Amino acid sequence: MTPVQTQPRPADPATVPLTGAESAGGTDASGPQVRDDMTVELALSVMSGSGAGHLFLCDEDDQCTGLITRARLIAVREGPAYTDQVRLRDVLALTR
Question: Region entry Disordered: which residue ranges (predicted)?
Answer without folding.
Answer: 1-34
